[in-house]
Fold:
Amino acid sequence: MNEALISAQGICKDYLGVRVLDHVDIDGAPGQVHGIIGENGAGKSTLMKILAGFAQPTEGSVVFRGKPVVIAGPIAAKEMGISMIHQELNLIPDLTVYENIFLGKELVQGNGLLDKKAMIEETRSLLAKVGESGTDPRASITNLSVAKKQMVEIAKALSNDSKVLIMDEPTAVLTDNEIEILFASIRQLKEKGVVIFYISHRLKEVKQICDTVTVLRDGRRISTGNVCDVAEEDMARLMVGRELRELYPAKVVPGDDVVLDVQNLSIPGVIQDVSFQLRKGEILGFSGLVGSGRTELMEALVGLRHKAPGCSISVMGKQVGIGQYGDAIRNHIVYLSEDRKRTGLIVDMNITENITIVSLANYCHPLVDRKAEGRTAAKYAQAFDIRCKSVTELVRYLSGGNQQKVSLAKAMEVEPEIMILDEPTRGIDINTKQMIYRFINDLAKQGKSCIVISSELPEIVGLCDHVAVMRGGQLAGFVHGKDVNEEDIMFLATGVKKGVPAHAC
Amino acid sequence: MPAKISLKDRISNFNIEKYGPFLALAVLLLIMLVLQPQFFKINNVVNVLKQVSYMGCIAVGMTFVIITGGIDLSVGSMAAMTGGLMLVTTNHFNGSIPSIILALVAGCALAVGCGWAVGTLTTKGRIAPFIVTLGTGAIYRSIVLQAANGGEFRGATETYPVIGQGSFLGIPYAIFVFLAFAVVCHIILNNTRLGRYMYAVGSNEDVARYSAIKTDRIKIVAYMILGFGVFLMALMFSSRINAVSSSNFGAGLELDAIAAVVIGGTSMKGGRGWIWGTVVGVIILGVVGSMLNWLNVSAYLQGAVKGLVIIAAVLVQRGRGEVK
Structure:
């Protein structure tokens, strides 16, 4: 193994009086892909932010090229050749692809004006390197899919001529195909001697792409070793600190009553003629590739998007009009959005205020009864094991998993009969995942009905008895019972095989 | 959790963003105590409060608009238009009690209606509030100028001025109106659904929409509350001086009001702020103005000092704010 190019030594970080990193050491050698795994809140992102200059350690030091250094900020880090690709993408939506890539390092002609031609050309070759030659450098970021944005971020990091590249959950929004392209670029970088830190929840990928893996738990380094010496199960065990029990609970057999009947739902240009039914006590999966229209479909269903006329929705056998989200809530349908930060929670409000925001009318007589609100929040904090100092803590300071628990509490507060969960386990740790699976399962046992949208096939297969697969804004078909397996769903999602027609189920 | 908190923790946990304005006011008063103890004579204190209570009504209303992420630059001209309407109405009916009631209803309807119009244009019409109110402000002002033929409306009754010139226990009604409005607004903002939704809309409009909040309606109501504040100001001030100058009435008021809100710790980005902060901001502006008079600072320079106070207040708040 080469000498370490960068190493963190005895790093501690206190955040608002809480120690989130406790004497962590980590090394990165040229040409090494160093996987960093751990549950949410284990301190992975914080550690990486310290290396990339976004945060300063409370104790400990960073050694770069054999010398202790202070990485004062992201610009200093960039000058040293350290780049980080964040979990939440950092692109400016109103600028074009090439403008984003050259942001802060624009090429200038001799006369002082921008050399757009050169920047566009260079962007084109960078995009080609990450397999995105189809993307126009002059396209606006707003118009790109999440996966394409991710690839642009990677191209941007490449353009920095980075010596150290930190990737925080780079594959969370990518399809298998795109992951392969990403891995190919990682391997190229590796050959050039770049140090790569790779944070992921997907152990399979860590096994596939990393050389070394470090496990963090509760802010401490638990172990560092060669990837080939550690099995996936061992990684999971080290992360959790105890044996993992069965991840998915036994499936629930749904009843016969149809609680939700959707006919001919269309969104011009996005969704064509989707019809499906949901039964009492059913967990209906919605699968499909990113961009297949699952989220848009559900948002239209609950009144968060305009639907084309001609759609009919019945709840418990009664036809209802859902023009805005309030109508869905009145019909006991609740939607848990996939994007916690953008549409799920108000991070600058506290836990209590977030939980009661939809059901606030129940606490107003006519002034808000804060004590009653607090009791409700405390009840959920206990039931869902929301880890916080108090229920008046701002949501901003919670880990992803705990934020998701707050979202669940917020949704449960309106006493839904039908719950639509969009990517309920995205970016959260395995313990919380298991908790959420149990929670969904319990809901079904109580006779409530759930729709689960997920890009993680094992999750759909493990939870659902009945799965709708979408492709290109249409229902590609359904699979159910024994046929619920990853291959059959993938065939439908990619259009290799035709499914059972929608109305036959 | 043990309730005991050490003094050191208390100091380091001190919420400067929230209580900073109180601290600043205390410092100002302390300086005055040393330099000019006469400042604390009851007459002078009442006078200072009276001077700022007019602008204060607007600042309190403006707090709602800024918390929801908006701004209103047309309040000064709106006040002139509203005050003018009320004067003309009472004059027309010779100042009988019914005519005063009619004037109040008309003035209130006009100001709240203007708030509704601005709110609707920014939400349904999707125009930035800065632009909308730049436009409406120009429209209001020119309507008043046209109606008064460039001069001023004069009160011709004996009843109307009683509202603005009267007092109770030696304290002018204007101060009561300002404080009562602040108390009501504080309760709305802190203890009602509407208030909570305003913070939600200002903090993250998308999440608010995904929480079944009618975001447009909330924003429009914020502008309507501000309209009501403008009505109160127009009523108290036009009846105090018993005249409305078509070119001067309310001029520059929007900037003082916004300054008071910002000094009080309300974030211009929306989602954060509180009424008592604004009230303190209003009083700070009043104390600074009065202080400069006592210290014989040239009237021309007073604007500069005010500007410095505003910038300093924001700097202090940002200094301790979160570094992104």
In short: Chain B is about 75% helix and 5% strand. The mean pLDDT of chain B is 89. Strands of chain B lie at 152-154, 167-168, 171-172, 243-245.
